[in-house]
Every structure is written in C-alpha cells, then in structure tokens.
Specification:
Helix content is 74%, strand content 0%. With 243 residues, the protein is mostly helical. Helix 3 (35-47) packs antiparallel against helix 4.
C-alpha cells in the first residue's frame, strides 16, 4: 500500500480552503494510513464540517491515529471519552488518553490531563502534579494553561502567592486569546485603577466567552464596588437582551 506524503505547507493549504474541498482528500489519505489525515478527517466528522456529522466514525479515525501515537489524535480520543462524543462517556479512559497525549508532547493533552488531576476526574486528585503539567503546557505557549498558572500564583496554590507573576501570566493569556485570561487580566488591571484598559479587555472577554461565562461575568460586574464596571455590566446585559 502506498502511503501518501504531504509537506506541512501542502497540508496547511488543503486545510485553509473550504472543508468540503479538504474532506475528500483527507478521507483518501486517512484510508491510506496517514495519521495526520486520520486525525484531521476525524475532526471534520466530529464537527460536521464539509461532511455529515458522524461522531462514531470520528472516534474510529482518532483511534487509528492514536494507536500509532499521534499526539493530537490521543488528545481528541480523550475528549470523546470524556464528553461521550461517539462513545460512552468514561472519565477513566479519557485520562488514559490525555496522559499519553501529554507524554507525547501535546499541549492540549497536557492541559486536559492537568485539569483531570486538579479536579480528581477519572484519576486521584493531585494538584501539585497538575501544576507541573499546566506549567509545561504554558511553556509551550498554550494560552489556557498560561491563565491557569496565573491562577495558581494569584491563589498561592503549590507556589508562594505572587500577584506580579499572576498579572504577567494573565496578560500573556489575554494576548494569546484566552477569554478567561482576558477577564482575569482585566480584573487585576481594575485593581490597579487602570479602568480604561480593564474595560477594553472585559469587552474582549465578553465577545469571546461562552454563554455560561458571560452569565458569571455579569454577576461579577453587578457586584463590583466600581461604578464603571457596574455600568459596563448593565450595558452588556442590555446589548445581549437586544439581540
């Protein structure tokens, strides 16, 4: 069997186009045994982009790629088992794949494995080890992990409390596009009375956040001792109701 070869640039060009154009090539390459294509095709199937949504088939392709230790595939297989996408939800199996993905160098695998360790979900809770994995992912530039490491320093978990280090991590997470990092950075900016910048970052966090996050954000703003933040909460709530 001839295994197709493709450069990183060629793969990027294929994936940068419409998903319905990428899907046939990825399916053919996946059937020919290319782990990267198996993983990417699995993501299209999972999300229903360019193909009919089929989580069960997505799990099939993630599993094939994970068996040859493809880092992204192992992480995605963990996600499927954690959330019950195309397979019965099983937090223990999810952690198994997250750990392998982390060991293989996947920043998302590190983040998800660390989250499981911190929450004790599918594995015994171990905040110290979770911090080490969050920090490894953060060192790779993973914005969500950078934000979580900032939280460890703000709260003094496993490290000496240091608001300056927390502030720097939140800034980096915010710049990296993590909406929770943007919110946390804005919080500490407000604590420094840098209100204009704080409001700008709060608006960016609002735009990028999930509905559940926005609801919590409105509660935070409504309870703020700062009038400008309470007013922002009122405006954001009104804008949401008007849509």
């Amino acid at each position: 069997m001839t295994i197709p070869s493709i450069t990183t640039e060629q793969l990027r060009a294929v994936l940068s186009g419409p998903p319905e154009n990428a899907a046939p090539w990825l399916q053919l390459a996946a059937e020919q045994g290319l782990p990267e294509a198996q993983t990417r095709f699995g993501q299209l199937l999972l999300e229903g982009r360019g193909v009919d949504r089929n989580p069960q088939e997505a799990v099939h392709w993630f599993t094939r790629a994970a068996r040859v230790e493809h880092p992204m595939a192992m992480n995605m297989l963990g996600r499927c088992h954690e959330l019950g996408w195309g397979v019965a939800a099983d937090s223990i199996v999810a952690v198994y794949w997250y750990r392998l993905a982390a060991l293989a160098g996947s920043d998302w695998g590190m983040y998800n494995y660390a989250t499981a360790l911190m929450l004790g979900k599918g594995v015994a809770a171990d905040r110290a080890t979770a911090f080490l994995w969050f920090r490894k992912a953060a060192d790779l530039g993973h914005a969500k992990s950078v934000n979580v490491v900032g939280g460890f320093y703000e709260d003094g978990w496993e490290v000496q409390r240091d608001l300056e280090v927390a502030f720097d991590h939140y800034r980096r997470a915010a710049d990296g596009g993590d909406f929770r990092g943007q919110f946390n950075y804005a919080r500490l900016l407000a604590d420094r009375n840098e209100m204009e910048a704080a409001i700008q970052w709060l608006r960016r966090a609002w735009q990028a956040g999930t509905d559940a996050f926005r609801e919590k954000m409105l509660g935070f703003l409504a309870g703020s001792p700062r009038e400008s933040l309470r007013e922002l909460g009122t405006r954001l709530g009104a804008e949401r109701s008007a849509r």
